[in-house]
Every structure is written in structure tokens, then in C-alpha cells.
Amino acid sequence: MSIIFATNFQEFLKTLNINPDHQELFTLNTDQWVIDLSRHYLNQSQLSYLSTWLEQHDFINQKAQLFTDNTLNFTEQRAVNHVFLRDSNQVFPSAQNAAMQAEIAKQNDFCQRFHKQPFMNTGKKIRHLLTIGIGGSHLGSNLVIDALQEFCDKHLTNHYLTGTDPYQLNDVLKQIDPEATLVFVASKSFTTQETLWNYQKIKTWFEQKLGSTANSHFIAITNNQVKALCLGFLDEHIFSVPESIGGRFSLWSAIGLPMRLSLGETHYQALLAGAHAMDMHFKDRPLAQNIPVLLAILDLVYGNCLHVQQRAVIPYSQRLRLLTPHLQQVEMESNGKSVDQTGLSVTYQTGLAVFGGIGPNSQHSFHQWFYQGTFLTPIDFIAITGDSQHPDFEQLLFSQCLAQAKALWEGQKGGESYQMTQGGKPSTMFLSKNLNPRSLGELIALYEHKVFSIGLLTGTNAFDQFGVEAGKKQSIAMLAAINEGAGYLDPITQHMLNQLTTL
Ligand code: F6P
Whose CA, among 26, 201, 212, 340, lies 20 to 30 Å from 350? Predict the structure, then answer.
């Protein structure tokens, strides 16, 4: 990625004459979604002009790297290969292909054996899948299972242990039957403190309950096979997540095994097919109709030309309640960067913060801030229009979503000043007739390609996360300092702890 391109692009953005007053209609379709961009500060012709500029500056070749052998994760000198996981041909770049084909066969065999229950030699059928993992090792898989419950095996209940919260631990222990439970220890690094602590606690509990058969209930999903073997996992129960699959992009890998078992093969393949359809959209669509690229441009225009710092994601669907937490990691861990490929600090804005909630709950919570606050916040509204046993409820929910986008854009004049709403609040509307494996696969992949595009446009790496790695080291040192008095407690922390003793 040439930084000259990125810098010029940012300078270019500042020359734009942007305004909310246009009335141009601008809607694009994918297989499963209608995506409306009419209520934005850039109209279709401006976005088209920007796209042409990007085409003239090598953006298409940069984007194409995702679908070939690459080192797009340039700070860690790693490939980025998540798109190959949902390609039915699944031919990986040559260096990884043999290993990946073997891994895929191992996962396929495991899933086939699982569905021929009883899976364990205990004779009991597996009824509980417990995932121990955090961040990308939990969020994506949990989102899919939660959103697609109606497509999942009704005899399987999924449980999650993420942080080391005693209440979460006790809740899980109350709900699972160890004989009927498989435990997936999902950690690409197998060094994540929370995951290792949860694993040890659960393993001890299983050993107390099951004795020597406990170990056969544990599955490791990691890039650190050696450590998994050292911890005693059976080789046939260790599944690999390649280095080239980033944590926040890993639900398509072995990290998604609990999701795959819950969905069953037909729905799982439909999820992959939806993501692959979006891959092809991103790969082949002209930039002026390329939704992930256009959404990336819009975020950067808002951040660089209108000093916007955040974007809201508001699904009008309870089944998408975990989408925003997933996107917070995908977007903020990918684009929360400030150093470009040359190692210099960028002189422009990169990724926005993401927050949100479920509509209409959010209407009765923070939408006031959108209407009359002093900040500008673009919003992604997501609505599912027609797959309910209660069409009257569906229609009200859908109309509320449409009404919010309209009211925020048009504003409301008249009355006292404190009663008026400025309007000019931009939004993208995502509409689909069904929330199913295909439409969800498309939606998740859409945001993955958006964050990659923002990385290209800003010359930053969307695939590393050195910031949080630093945070992880701090928490290990802090624990030592608090526990054993080993190491140094900064004055502020020490003062807090002293105050705590006075309660
Ligand atoms: O938050 C940092 C991070 O490394 C994420 O990128 C990752 O998804 C999460 O922690 C868990 O890491 P691991 O899968 O290695 O346990």
C-alpha cells in the first residue's frame, strides 16, 4: 500500500463539497440485502467520483491481494486468508494448502462423528457445548448461534465462559451436565489469561465429576498445538487455527466448531455461502457499487471532514443483539490504528468508535442524543422485514426503524427552539426479508471487507492488534503486584487499594 496514495486520499477528502441537502436516491442490492445510502452527506455522484479516483490509484490491485497469496498483515509478516475458509473449493494459497486440506478433513470427520450420537463412549448423548474463549474466539461464533437459534439443533445448548467472572462460572456450572458436555477451549494463542484460568477451573471440576474420562470431553482449538498437547489434550481433539486467520475473522475456522455442530452441515454451508457471495461482491463489483468500499469511504469522510468519532449500529431485531459487540471488535480492533505502513504516525483520522443497541429499546434510551445532542453520529439501521409468526409485530418494528431514519435525517422544525430537531443525521439502512444463514453470512463478511478497505485507504494494518497485546501484559504484571506484592504498583493504584481497605 503506497502511503502517498493514503495521504493523498485523505487530502482529497478534505476538498469535497459535502452537504446533507441532496435528495438523490441511492440503493444497492446484494443477494440477501437491500442497502440504502440515500441519507448521507455524499451523494451517489460524489461517491462515484471518489471511486474513480481510487481506481486510478491502484486500489483495485490492493484489494485483490485478499484473494491471493499475500502478506497483508505486514507488521507481523503474516498472510490474511479468512476468505479461503468460505470458498467451497477451499484451495488455500500453495504454502498453506496441504496443511489446511488435512485440517479441514479432520474437522469434517469430527463433525460427522459428532452427529452420529452418542459421540462419547459414555453412551450419553452430548447436550451441552461449552466454549471457553474471549474476543474473536467467542464473539463471532456466539453471534451466529444466537442469531440463528431457529436453525440450530434444539437438543444442543451452548454456554460460554469468557472473563474470569465467578458469577459467570457459577451460572455455567449450574447448567451443564459434565457427562453430556463437550468443552471447546478456543484460543488461537493459548496464552490468554482468562481462557487458561477458565480452562483449569473447568478441567478440575470435570475431573472431580468424571475422574479419568474427563479429558475426553475437552477439545482445543488453537494455533498453539504444542501447548495444547503439553496441557494433555488428546491429539484427535486438537484443531488448528492457522496464523493467517485473525482472531476477529476466525468464526469461519475451527473456532466456529460449536457453531457448526449447532447449525448442522446444511445451515453451516449456507452461512459460508453467504459470506462467499459477499466475498465475490467485494472482489468483482465496480467500486462505485461496492458496498464495503463505499461504507469505508463514508466512515473516513465523516471522520476526516466532519470530525465524527463514532458510528452507531442499531439492529431492529433481537436476534442481532450480539452483532454490535462483534462489530466493536472487528471494526475497532482492526481500524483503531494510528501508525501507517512506513511506521510514521498518520496525520488523519482512521477508524470510528462503534456503539449501539437494539431498536426500539435504543429509541427509549439514547436516541435523544442523536436528535438534539451536539455530535454528528452516522447510524447503521438493520431491519428484517418478513419472517415472523407475528406479522403485525414485525410491521410495527419495521415501521419504527424506517421512521427513526427519516426523522433523524429530515429533522423537525417549528415550535420552541428546545423542541426542534436539527435533522441532517445520516444513516445507512440495511434491509433483508429473512435473517437466515445466508443473509447473516453476507452481513458479517460485509463488515470484514469494510475494515480491510479502511486499512487500505489509511495505509494502516487492519490485521494486527499490538495495543491490546500491551494491555494483556499489564494485567499479568498487575496481578503479580496485587497478589504477591511482587513488582511495582503505581501511586494511583496503590492509593485506590489503600482507600479500599478503609471501607
Ligand atoms: O483482544 C486481543 C485478542 O488477541 C483478540 O485479537 C483475540 O480474538 C482475543 O484476544 C483472544 O485471543 P486468543 O484467541 O489467542 O485467546
Answer: 26
Q: What CATH homologous superfamily does 116-263 map to?
A: Glucose-6-phosphate isomerase like protein; domain 1 (3.40.50.10490)
Predicted confidence (pLDDT) at residue 200 exceeds the cutoff of 90? yes
Between the alpha carbon of residue 118 and those of residues 121, 122, 135, 176, the distances in Å are 7, 8, 31, 17
Catalytic residues: 333, 364, 472
pLDDT at 279 over 60: yes
How many angstroms separate the CA atoms of 355 and 375, rounded? 14
In the predicted structure, residue 14 carries a pLDDT above the cut 50? yes
Q: Is the CB of 231 under 6 A from ligand 1?
A: no
Give burial (CB, 10 Å; 0-12/13-18/19+) of 333.
Answer: buried
34 burial level (CB within 10 Å; 0-12, 13-18, 19+): middle
Residue 340 near residue 3 (C-beta atoms within 8 A): yes
Report the relative pairing of strands 427-432 and 310-316 from DSSP bridges: unpaired
Q: Alpha-carbon distance 72 to 424, whole Å? A: 37
Q: What fold characterizes domain 26-75+274-458? A: Rossmann fold (3.40.50)
User: How many A from CA of 187 to the centre of ligand 1?
Assistant: 7
Confidence class for position 13, pLDDT limits 50, 70, 90: confident
Domain ranges of the chain: 26-75+274-458, 116-263, 471-500
Q: Is the pLDDT of residue 32 over 70?
A: yes
Site to substitute for ligand 1 among 160, 241, 465, most atoms within 8 A of C-beta: 465
Q: Is 187 in the pocket of ligand 1 (CB under 6 A)?
A: yes
CA torsion sign for 89, 90, 92, 97 is: negative
pLDDT tens, 400-455?
999 999 999 999 988 899 999 999 999 999 999 999 999 999 999 999 999 999 99
**pLDDT class of 214 with cuts at 50, 70, 90:** very high
Do 70 and 246 meet the contact criterion of CB atoms below 8 Å apart? no
For ligand 1, whether the C-beta of 471 sits within 6 Å is no
**Distance of CA 470 from the midpoint of ligand 1 (Å):** 12
| DSSP 8-class letter at 78 | B
pLDDT for position 352 = 98
Judged by DSSP in three states, 431 sits in strand
Strand partners, 384: 432
pLDDT of residue 272 exceeding 90: yes
The DSSP bridge pattern shows strands 427-432 and 34-39 to be: antiparallel
Residue 5 has pLDDT above 90, yes or no: no
> Residue 1: is its pLDDT beyond 50?
no
Q: What is the mean pLDDT of residues 296-324?
A: 96
Q: Is the peptide bond before 118 cis (omega within 30 degrees of 0)?
A: yes
Contacts of 319 (CB under 8 A, 6+ apart): 146, 147, 148, 149, 384, 435
Can you count the helices (H) and strands (E) in the chain?
17, 11
Q: Find the mean pLDDT for residues 468-479.
A: 86
